[in-house]
Specification:
Strand 17 (745-748) and strand 18 form a beta hairpin. The protein has 784 residues and is of the alpha/beta class. The chain contains 32 helices and 21 strands. The chain binds a DNA duplex (15 and 10 nucleotides) through helix 6, helix 11, helix 27, helix 28 and helix 29.
Amino acid sequence: MAKIRATAAEAALPPEDAPEAAPDEMLPISQRAMLRRPDGYLDALNAEQREAVETLEGPLLVLAGAGTGKTRVLTTRIGHLLSLGRARPGQILAVTFTNKAAREMKHRVAQLIGGAVEGMPWLGTFHAIGVKIMRRHAELVDLKPSFTVLDTDDQIRLIKQLLEAENIDEKRWPARQLAAMIDGWKNRGLVPKRVPDGESFGFANGKGRDLYAAYQRRLKELNAADFGDLLLENLRLFQEHPDVLEKYQQRFHYMLVDEYQDSNVAQYLWLRLLAQGTNNVCCVGDDDQSIYGWRGAEVDNILRFETDFPGAKVIRLERNYRSTAHILGAASGLIAHNQGRLGKTLRTDSDDGEKVVVEGCWDDEEEARIIGEDIEQLQRQGHSLNEIAILVRASFQMRAFEDRFITLGLDYRVIGGPRFYERQEIRDATAYFEVTLNPANDLKFERIVNVPRRGLGEATLKALHQLARANGIPLTQAARIIIETEDLKPKPRKALADLLAAFDRWRALIDGMRHTELAELMLDESGYTGMWQADRSQQAQGRLENLKELIRFMDEFDTLAGFMEHVSLVMDAATEEGTDRVSLMTLHSAKGLEFDTVFLPGWDEGLLPHQRSLDETGRSGLEEERRLAHVGLTRARKSAKITFAQNRRTYGMWQTAVPSRFIDELPHEHVEVAEDKGTRGYGPSRFESAETLFASGFYETPGWQRAQRNRQSGGGGPRREPLTIDGTLVAASTAQGSGLDVGERIFHQKFGYGRVASIDGNKLTVDFEKAGRKKVVDSFVERV
DNA sequence: AACTAATACTTTTTT
DNA sequence: AGTATTAGTT
């Protein structure tokens, strides 16, 4: 086992560390000269960008609005540092939040400096860099260098076990909730003993902090760290070991942070410690694009930059190179409603272009139909589908579009979605690999002990747990003991013995066999591939494909351990390029991208300012939602269209929706209401009024005003002044005993006439004459 | 231990 | 509405 750890540790310290061994890694003179040529990289910048690139010493905040060349500044700055010989690649720390951004930056730096330098060893996500540092000093944070990074699944599983051990009712205090709390604490840089009493009481009557502490202890026993630890433990490392900190302070001559508005407290503290060395820290960000507050990001970090880093210089990039004047005007007008901004005024030299179009739809299906038609129209006009995107607030919205596009035969791609690594089959497969490498990983062992089914169920697991807990040993070791006894029935005993033997066999092959072959062997011999082959379901084929893809991906690494290092942090599904497809994604995953044409469906009150955001974080939540809307609009280069639905299904029930308040906040001069094409008639006659409504100038129409009234009155109840932030969304909650009885004949806006089949509170099951059996909320039906 | 039925929960976003 | 988890049954 010691041997295995050694391999893992070696793999964890890849050759990128070479700079120390090969001291002079400065770019060759010829290359530096090339970078200096007069038509070179600096000339391509505007005055502010250039200043941002050339201000090398001291703290610098670059406030870069959407489309102002933020990435260009960052990469040019790195190139500049290298070409001036101010730093070697290994002396520049450059952190991003996403793997995508890290890849992009690596790529562009390589382009800039001609790919001569073998990458930048310290360019990566906060988490990836955190792991790298922690592996080198693992013992100082009570881990072994081969520690594994837990995914969210394992995290929950572990917490469940803790709750069980403490006899806490998981119904009342769900593991997810505790996981979220612990995450939150870690994001704020709080170790267990620093958790405030009040918050500790938020879980299981004050056991929150103790559970957190117990969880951390279990992690150490398992030699594992969760995502939060990659930052928190790093911070602890620096705080408790000034000598280590000093080493890194000296190493990093220049520090760059991308998307600083997304940083959380732990990241901020980490950065500030490092910056106390040279103080050459450059943060790039946009407070108007801070959309990860719910995940612990602190807009405050960017708002306070000048106080945190005394003597800081602030440069604003306000020239937008992306969007037309109308789009920019609409976006700026919207975001101006936020308070607590650093304030930027985006300018552009572009033409006015087209106004932002707003169109109301009957329901989400019509929304998808209208947008589908628009896209087909664009396609006929010769636009590339790759330049069209649909940006939604929540992923459930995607479904209507996917359905529609499939019937239209329109090619689309979903960006984001479940990450490759998060798929069940990938997690299972990597669990096999992990247990082979590290038999002490109880969580992974538990994951696959009975996958595929081997007859090792609850009873066996319980026995194993008991033995393991009593002796303080890993499950696999307990298994080894238990198969020598009579404690298990013959069948499970044999199955367990076989499994252990298999792991031993695979482990013996690690050094003697190509790791991709070994991986295939493991999946075959364990019966895992067989399990999916035998599965006749729709998805089984896809899962097998994914497993193949996994093996292909592994090929890019030299060892199994080296692959495992990256799998949890950096692996995401390959996005096939090449084909012409419409992109479908959430607003969050659209940040940093741009398209000629952007569709923004679902600007409904409760969905675009998302109700949950409003409920949980009030005003600041509303402002974050507004920033999300702003991010959406600013993705568009040439045209943007906003739609909303008047009826939407939530949790399977129809509710009337009200247009988003953000629509009203758009400056009139940059907006036009969709003209009536006369081809969109839909079902019931009441829709005709909606058509005329949109044809005759939106803001003055009766329909619009009705929507306004609805918004303010909370859905027909007694009038309430402007919808309060935590006001509930129209219908559902206003139902006061409907007085309906089973068997009564009713009318519903969408489904027409029907008879009540059963009543459950305010939820009705109705047999409609045309639409069949549906569940609806009683306030949407009227007695006839 | 495995299968079926009932119930609860969902719909923010990501390393 | 649909999925995921859980409880109850064989």
